[in-house]
Structure formats: C-alpha cells, structure tokens
Amino acid sequence: MSKIPPKPWPTGLADPVEPLVMRVLAPNPSPYTFTGTQTYVVGDPTGPDCAVIDPGPDEAPHIEAILAAVGTRTVTAIMCTHTHRDHSPAAAPLAEKTGAPIVGCAPLVLKVDGPRSDEAFDTTYEPDRVLEDGEQMRGTGWTLTAVATPGHTSNHLCFALEESGSLFTGDHVMGWSTSVVIPPDGDMGDYMASLEKLQARGDKVYHSAHGAAITKPQQLVRGMIGHRRQRENQILRLMGERARIAADFIPDMYKGLDKRLIGAAEMSVTAHLLDLEKRGLAKQDGTLWSVN
After folding, report:
1. Where are the domains of the chain?
2. Which strands form 136-139's sheet, in the order they lie side by side?
3. Domain 225-291 bears CATH identifier 1.10.220.10
4. Which of 136, 197, 139, 208 has its CA nearest to residue 168?
5. Which of the four pLDDT bands, split at 50, 70 and 90, describes residue 265?
6. Which fold, 14-215?
7. Model confidence at 112, in pLDDT bands (50, 70, 90)?
8. How far is CA 31 from the centre of its chain?
9. Contact between 138 and 119 (Cβ < 8 Å)
C-alpha cells in the first residue's frame, strides 16, 4: 500500500492506492487534519465512471486535482462520510462541475461554543440522497456500501468497497490519531458500538481521511476499544476517590498535556462521563460527577 511520504506532501496528485482507488490529498494540513484531507476516487481508471469520496475543502486547486484524477470518466456519485468542513464543502462546486449527485451522510449543522479538537460543521452541505446503513451505490466494476458508524458525529458513515474488501473510514478510524468524540453531537456510547461493529466485519484495509492506509484494521480497532475502556476505568477509579468536575480528571489522566489541548481533553472526558451516566455507572450533581 502507498504510504504518506515525509514533507513535502503530495497535494494535488492522483496517488493510486489499489487498482480501483486513487487518493488526492487536499492542501489543508492542520492539527485537526494531519497532512490534509484525503479524497478518494473509486473506479477503474480506464472505465467509464467513478465515485468521489470526501471531496474535502472548497479550494479551487483541490477541486481541479480531483477532476484531473477523474479524467474522462463520468462521476456518478459524490459521497460524504460526514459534514465537518474539511470533508464536505467541495461537494457542491464539484457537483456543479460534473453534474453528479451528492449522496451519503445526512445533513448536520451544530454550533458548539466550547473548545474543539476537530473541524466545525459545514453549513453548505445539501445531499441529493441520504444513504441508510447497507444501501449501495454501484458503477462499472465497483460497489460501495454505506456502513453507519455514529459516534464521532451522529451522521458519520463509512463506505465499503465490495470488490476489494476495503473500507473508507472517514474520521471514525484514522491512520494517524484517535478520533475525537465531542458532545453534544459526538456520543461515546455510539462510538464504541460503531467500533465493535467494525471489529465484527472482515474488511482487509482501511482508507481513512487522514493518514496512511491501515493494513491491520482489526488489530487497530481492538487497540482503540481497549484504550477507551482504559480511559473509562480511570474515570471510575478517580470518581471513586472523590466527586469531581470534568476538569479535575485531566491532571491525573493526561500527564504533561499541552495546555492548548486541555479544553479538548475535558470534552473527551465529558463524553465518557455522559456515557457512564446513561449506563447507570455515574451520576451528576450540578457540575460534580461521582460513582453511582
């Protein structure tokens, strides 16, 4: 599998990652996006049609790079895993240029005033068709199946390429970092259930929106589930010592954390606390959290 090379990163180039898949890296590197958002063009390069997954930011050079990767093929679908603004804003201008429908996740716009460690939501996203879990888009020699994976966002979808056993995982499972879960839309219980759903599948490789291809997906997902359970156990132990506000968990759970990331860590802890409360393992009294 093709690897993300050292800087300079290959923005604007069509990088073949498997016979039916090309990857185009957007020029939007950031602490949220790693080297940038990876758009995937799915279909035989010599065939008549293709699909575009996660068209990325609305930046003219990136849209032109996608069109160059498409070549003479007809774009039959522009597919979005979710509506963070590093994923879906290019859908509308790309649809205007190609005539392709926008399909995939449901629209979602949520204003969050607290600290984030991901991108804000795209207010321009208007799909022509929302895919339900198990629905498919087909072209010449390719079939993409929607796999509902709420958690990172409530509208998150992955897309399975049936012909190769690959899964396009968006931000649910990434090749460079764990996914963030930020309430109120992000839900830790849903995220864990979605991880377990992926673990039960037999996908051979994951192509995420950020980072290198994941060639041992089951091993990675198992580790991610274990990491989240470890965090959960830490929270239960600390609550057992005394009632705490969410911020009080951070010094014990995140040793040496960059001060700029404290707010985001607090939101992650809050996601765990809300999930524990739903399961009857924690209770909240005003701003204080304790074991139920």
Report:
1. 14-215, 225-291
2. 136-139, 142-148, 157-161, 166-170, 205-208
3. no
4. 208
5. confident
6. Metallo-beta-lactamase; Chain A (3.60.15)
7. low
8. 15
9. no
